[in-house]
Amino acid sequence: MQSDTVGAGQTDDKQAAILMAAFDAFRTYGFRRASMEDIARRAGMSRASIYLKFKNKEAILSALVQRYFDDAVDKMTAALDAAGDPADALAGAFAVKVAAPFDALMTSPHGEELMDAKITVAADVAAAGEARIVEVLADWLARAEGKGIVSLEAYGSAEQTAATIYDALHGVVMSARDYDVLLADLDRLATLIGQGLRPARS
């Protein structure tokens, strides 16, 4: 049976090898130029073996995007829960969202094409992944408000605030052209948002 998309928890060894090889091929040649033969060669498999797992390179890209969001959701949840101060929590969550292999994507000459392909080829997977991250942020905000760590009084519901935070995060990430600058910008964003979320002290 062919697999169109594969989540992180569902990836077997061959699928994982294919996804790693595909990421390398896409970084090297770009999504449009990379072929199933390029992916097979990097994975040390025949093209027939690749087609047993994925019907085409679009399915492989969708699986890569799915795996990225699965990993980001888990790591962002852990980072948010690990810190008490809202600025520290957001800084940790933002950092893991753009951790490896995101740095490798940004240093690729085809990074912009791959980001575009994520939106066009894997639109549904990307949209679902982004919605999951907003849910993670909303859950954290609701719990943090219950503990008195943040105040949402001026910002609306946890869901509305989470959506705004994600929009700001997404905007910074999508406009970035240098990885080190991106990390610094995300730290700054976390500080700005985190300070605004802290309850006023009388």
TrEMBL record:
GO-annotated molecular function: DNA-binding transcription factor activity; transcription cis-regulatory region binding
Family matches, as PROSITE patterns: HTH_TETR_2
Residues within the DNA-binding region(s): 35-54
SUPFAM superfamilies: Homeodomain-like
InterPro entries named among the record's database cross-references: Homeodomain-like_sf, HTH-type_TetR-like_transc_reg, HTH_TetR
Residue ranges constituting the HTH tetR-type domain according to the UniProt record: 12-72
RNA-binding as UniProt keyword: no
Keywords, alphabetical: DNA-binding
Protein's name according to its UniProt entry: TetR family transcriptional regulator
Organism, scientific name: Maritimibacter harenae
